[in-house]
Each structure stands twice: as C-alpha cells, then as structure tokens.
From TrEMBL:
BP GO annotations: Golgi to plasma membrane protein transport; intracellular protein transport; protein localization to Golgi apparatus
InterPro entries attached to this UniProt entry: P-loop_NTPase (IPR027417), Small_GTP-bd (IPR005225), Small_GTPase_ARF (IPR024156), Small_GTPase_ARF/SAR (IPR006689)
PROSITE patterns in UniProt: ARF, RAB
Keyword Lyase among record annotations: no
Protein name in the entry: ADP-ribosylation factor-like protein 3
A Gene Ontology term for the protein's cellular component: Golgi apparatus
Molecular function GO terms recorded: GTP binding; GTPase activity; metal ion binding
Membrane in keyword set: no
Residues annotated to bind Mg(2+): 31, 54
Highest classification ranks of the organism: Eukaryota, Fungi, Dikarya, Ascomycota, Saccharomycotina
C-alpha cells in the first residue's frame, strides 16, 4: 500500500520539463546569458569574468514560478563546433539565438547560420527567440535594424512563434522579460512538442 501511495505521490509531484537550446556565433554571449539566468533564479553561478569560450556544453535547469522546469543547453558557437548543434534539435522545445548587437562585421554570418537552423525539418514549429545581446554597449545596433534583418529570415519560413528582444547578458537587463515570452510560447506549443515529466 505504501508503495502505491509513494508511486502516486511521485507521479503527482512530477514537473513539466522543457529543453531549450541556446545557439549563436562564438562570442555572442550565450554562456554569459546562462550564468546570469542562473543567478537571477538563485542558483549558484560562475563569475562572469571567468567565462571562457565553450568547447563542450553547459547545462542548467531552472524552476520557474509556475513550477515548470526549463533545461538549458548552451553549446559552443565556434564554426568548427556548429555541426554538432543538430544533434540537439529533435529533443528541444525552443531555440534561443543570441547575437552580439555591436558586431556589424558578422551580420551575414549570423543571418546565414540562423537561416540554416530554421530550415531544418527537425525543429519545424519550434519557437525561436532571438536575443539582441550587449545592449549595455554604446556602439550597439538599433534594435529596429536587428528586427528587420530577423524578419527577412523569418517571413520565408513556416509559421512559428518568434521574437527579437533586446538584452544585456552582462547586466541582466531584459533577461526575465525574455523568460516570460519563452514560457508562454512553450506552453502554447505543448501539443506539437510535449514536455517530458520529471
Ligand atoms: N558588454 C557586454 N559584454 C558581453 C555581454 N554578454 C557577453 N559579453 C562578453 O562577450 C564575450 C563572450 O561571451 P560568452 O558568453 O563567452 O560568449 P559565447 O556565446 O558563450 O561564446 P562561445 O562559447 O565561444 O560560443 C565575453 O567577453 C563576455 O563578457 C553583454 O551583454 N554585454
Ligand atoms: Mg560559451
């Protein structure tokens, strides 16, 4: 009898878990974003000035106010590592694509990279959140200009939720707002990509 109740309790206590893949070119600020997110959700986090370029992956799970688990996968953005990204596609419920808003010289590179991600069949219908990062810097591009570039890519592709939001992974500005957008879209997309229960 105890085992039955224990089993029921364990099932009842399971939480929805969604996997979110953090992509973007090297130096965009993906790992800084993840570490800041951990700090905002009261998890232990690295000092931001100790972050080095990612070669493998960083993983962190946060529990939201709605008692939903968000499991983030931060992978290296160097060109030689990008071919590994697709290994994560079939399991992910959303993609966060981070860009360095100050780096005008790499716009074509991230446009091309984002286009090839969004055209992959394995992530059809998955919400895409683009974070225009490093908004704390004076020489940042206008958010409107970044949105225009993003829209050129998004309008040719299948219907899905997508958004561009300005953030600073370094200061934390805009990060919690971006989570609000993401959580809503994950839940809306639940039929297409059901969460796992953990
Ligand atoms: N000013 C400013 N600097 C930032 C911000 N986010 C990241 N950086 C800096 O950008 C550099 C790269 O940050 P990372 O978080 O390592 O970038 P990444 O996208 O994880 O890079 P890879 O792991 O190589 O793919 C570091 O020097 C960060 O301090 C930001 O919002 N503002
Ligand atoms: Mg990194």
């Amino acid at each position: 009898m105890f085992h039955l109740f224990q089993g029921l309790y364990n099932n009842w206590n399971k939480k929805e878990q969604y996997s979110i893949l953090i992509l973007g070119l090297d130096n965009a600020g993906k790992t800084t974003f993840l570490e800041t997110l951990k700090r905002l959700y009261k998890l232990s986090s690295k000092e931001l000035d100790k972050i080095v370029p990612t070669v493998g992956q960083n993983v962190a799970t946060i529990l939201t106010e709605q008692k939903i688990q968000l499991k983030f996968w931060d992978v290296g953005g160097q060109e030689s590592l990008r071919s590994m990204w697709s290994e994560y596609y079939s399991q992910c419920h959303a993609i966060i694509f981070v860009v360095d808003s100050t780096d005008r010289s790499r716009i074509d590179e991230w446009k091309h990279t984002l286009t090839s991600i969004m055209m992959n069949d394995e992530i059809e219908g998955v919400p895409v959140l683009m974070l225009a990062n490093k908004q704390d810097k004076q020489d940042r591009m206008e958010i409107q200009d970044i949105k225009e570039i993003f829209n050129q890519i998004a309008e040719h592709l299948s219907a899905r939720d997508s958004r561009v939001l300005p953030v600073s992974a370094l200061t934390g500005d805009g990060i919690l707002d971006s989570m609000t957008w993401l959580i809503l879209r994950l839940q809306r997309n639940k039929k297409l990509r059901p969460p796992v229960y953990k």
